[in-house]
Amino acid sequence: MKKLILLIPISLMFSCGNNEKDYDATGTFEATEVIVSAEQNGALMQFSVREGDSVSANQQVGLIDTVQLYLKARQVGATKFVYQSQKPEVQKQIAATRQQLIKARQDVNRYSGLVKDGAANQKLLDDARSQLQVLERQLEAQTSSLNTSTKSLDAQMGTADVQKLQVADELRKCHVMSPITGTILEKYTEQGEFAAIGKPLFKVADIHNMYLRAYVTSAQLQKVKVGLPVKVYADYGDGERKEYQGTISWISSKSEFTPKTILTDDERADLVYAVKISVKNDGFIKIGMYGEVKL
Prior knowledge:
By secondary structure, this protein is α+β, with helices and mostly antiparallel strands. 40% of the residues lie in helices and 31% in strands. It is built from six helices and 13 strands. It has helices spanning 2-17, 67-86, 90-93, 95-117, 122-173, 218-221; strands spanning 25-37, 42-47, 54-55, 60-64, 175-177, 182-187, 194-195, 200-216, 229-237, 240-251, 256-257, 271-280, 290-294. The strands form two sheets. The chain has a six-stranded antiparallel beta barrel. A hairpin with a 2-residue loop joins strand 9 and strand 10 (240-251). Helix 4 (95-117) runs antiparallel to helix 5 (122-173). 17% of the residues are buried.
């Protein structure tokens, strides 16, 4: 009877001594989440995504009414055509003045010869030279005016081109796109509702490439470095876990107080360092699920 009494405490001692943690830190699984908001005002003509749908990066998932922007683009195009039609044809408009200049030079040359031979008086030559100077000044003024008008119209056409690009950008923003490849987590509006600039439309997350945000103490910090492979366990509760291969992708450069929901290897540690461990999700890891890491 005495032997039995002694065996019970010994077995209890072994069972208590075997209660050693097989992880170094815990945390929660997170994913890259993006809230997509409207970039234009208007009715949602198309918006058929549902929560749980998979989308690709740059995939169109909705369309905001583009009628007014289309009409604005047509108006800008018509305005540019008007400016284009108003541009003067410089060479044609100064052709008559150039022809008058040719005749005035011929007159000067002819009168110069006649005066030299004594067949004409000096006044005729002076009048011809004066007429030539007038025509030369007239041509300069006419050319300057036409060039100024052309430059002004070119500037207005350039403004129209900028307006056209602005409208094109506004039209592009009417197409609601997914910025990343992932899964729709939440949908905040429905097709037919009015979208305003900045109004959230949906939330998408990359749940295929997740990471565990865990916290390590300063004593454990020497064991971790970016790129180090580690073992990650997804905690399903009731002692059920699944092992994954992870890689440390980020280590915080500053310490912080231990979050109340996190257990570290040293329960007395007040300051810890956050680390991110990248994990490929096989579909079983969920955002917010608890996980453990073995360094």
